[in-house]
Amino acid sequence: MSLRYIGFAKTVLIALVLAMTPLFAINIILNQYAERRAVTEMEAMGQSTIRRAEEAISSTVTLLQRLDRDEVQTCSAEDRVIFEKLVVENGMIDAIGLADAAGRRMCVVPDRELAGQTILPPLRSDGPLVGIGMLDRNYLGARAAVISWDLKDQTRLFAEVTPSVIALDPGPEYLRSYRRSELRLGNNLLWYSVGGYNSEGSEPGTALTVQVSSELYPLVATVTAPVSAALIVVQDLKVVAAAACAGVAILFVAIGIWLSWRPESEASDEFAAAIRNGEFVPYYQPVMDIESQRLRGCEVLMRWRRPNGVIVSPGQFMAYAENNGHIFGMTRHIMRVASEEVGDLYGDNPDMKISINLFAGHFLDREVIADIRSIFEKSRISFQQIVVEVTERHPLQDMELARKIIAELQALGVRVALDDVGTGHGGMAYLQKLGVDIIKIDKMFIDSISSDDNSTTIVDSMVELADNLGMGIIAEGVEQEEQIERLLELGVTAAQGYYFAAPMPADEFIAFSERIEDEARERERLAAEAAAAEKAAAEARADDEAA
Ligand code: C2E
Ligand code: CA
Ligand code: CA
């Protein structure tokens, strides 16, 4: 059950990762797009500010040059009338006048306050003919500019350009609310500044700044905006992307559940149903005494008998049953059925042993002891007839507890066999630590016993060790007659394998045991007959001799 939830959680996690990855990618792409777009728009804003400033300067200079050419170069009443006319005609020009070399106003039309105020930098003989200065008067963040044109006599014609020429800030609404735009002249003279955003002191990477310079005049426009404002454009798209990814995630989860959960749960339901229906049944494989050719007992091997009659081997379901814990109930069931099926046979043959396979999980809990107790207490099979097998193939997690459980089973009279000896890493250490009674030599070593000297040596040393520790030995997977001869030579007397019989259902096993017994009795009868005949012959010889 818990394994299923782990599987489910894994599916959900994978689906989320699959769906979130594109979401991250989409976010990055959208952010980059938003920043690129904002920069482009800010460049356009800067360029349009520069263009307007250039136009204002150029057309004012043209106007002043024309006055110079037309010899309108003084503060005379006549000239002032012309100035006046031009101011009225030109919306861009607020005032026209004359300034001296020091930059002081000599006259200005219309005649506003403060003639004599310094409005231009002092004249420099090596400077350009055009001068630009700034007045304090401003409108919407723009100051009035003063454009001058040098005359021959150290005086200058000047015109005041209305601030509104420049105080026009284009650009998209989403940037206009957050940006700061500036236009600076020459050595840092501020002409126009709008917007409160200040990128100074903000984290690096959180502000976008664009600078555009004029090619005609020393003008630089700077536009700064926070990245967050740029991202406003893609906010809606991000919501859409997130929603789409959430949809995809749900779809993936659904597919994942459909793919993994459903068959998994079907398989699990099917398995649980098979357990309820008693489809797991014990088969019995005889264990033979190869000296006397009589039956020593059997090993119980589980089979799944499907309703359609197909018999499934444990290799196909045992790992699954062990992983999800079904094995505990299945083992209990197998023991109960076996105790019923062969109880009478064992009751009548108290020397016969019955082997039950346990797995590593059985040695993590004393419950197996209680199970064996309660099942065989009521059976004709005594505890002394029971052998439990524990495989060396898979390590035992808690050796100390396993040792205690084994000792308690032994105290009941149950014997413990180490299965598949020679295949695991446990080896000799297991034998000694666990205190087992019997070792079962794996088929692998028996297979090559007649041909391969090495494996004969291994079996040899196993036999020696078993003898030294007072343990019994069973050879597994015997298929050929020569193997039996070799085993007898090596001192092994118990064997199991297809040579004698494959695992079989209870009725066949009972019939098999009767046949073996009949054969044994027949052998005994023949032997007794032969002995009697021998005896009669000997007596006859003795009589003859006596006669
Ligand atoms: P195992 O305990 O080593 O059982 C011996 C396996 O070798 C059995 O396979 C048996 O049918 C097979 N075998 C016996 N003689 C020969 C032979 O001469 N030649 C060949 N090629 N094979 C032979 P099976 O019945 O398929 O069982 C496989 C494994 O499944 C068992 O190996 C055992 O580890 C496990 N198993 C079977 N029943 C149970 C059970 O009730 N509980 C647990 N925990 N494991 C079981
Ligand atoms: Ca076994
Ligand atoms: Ca085995």
Please sum up the structure shown:
With 547 residues, the protein is α/β, with parallel strands linked by helices. 49% of the residues lie in helices and 21% in strands. The protein folds into 2 domains: 1-262, no CATH class; 267-504, EAL domain (TIM Barrel).
List descriptors:
547 residues, alpha/beta, TIM Barrel, 2 domains, 8-stranded mixed beta barrel, 5-stranded antiparallel sheet, 18 strands, binds ligand C2E, binds calcium ion
Description of the structure:
Helices cover 49% and strands 21% of the residues. The chain has two domains: 1-262, no CATH class; 267-504, TIM Barrel. The protein contains 14 helices and 18 strands. It is of the alpha/beta class and 547 residues long. It is rod-shaped, with a radius of gyration of 53 Å. Helix 1 packs antiparallel against helix 4 and helix 6 (326-341) packs parallel to helix 8 (367-377). The strands form three sheets. Strands 10-11-13-14-15-16-17-18 form an eight-stranded mixed beta barrel, surrounded by five helices. It has a five-stranded antiparallel β-sheet with strand order 2-1-5-4-3. Ligand C2E binds at residues 285, 301-302, 313-315, 318, 331, 334, 357-359, 391, 419-420, 443, 477-479, 496-498, 503.
Number of domains: 2
Structural class: alpha/beta
Ligands (ions, cofactors included): ligand C2E, calcium ion
Gyration radius, to the nearest Å? 53 Å
Low-confidence stretches: none
User: Beta-sheet strand percentage?
Assistant: 15-25%
Number of helices: 14
- The 3D shape can be described as rod-shaped
Mean of the pLDDT scores?
88
Largest pleated sheet = 8 strands, mixed, barrel
Question: Order of strands across the widest beta sheet?
Answer: 10-11-13-14-15-16-17-18
Number of strands: 18
Q: Into which percent range does the helicity of residues fall?
A: 40-55%
Q: What is the CA–CA distance across the termini?
A: 90 Å
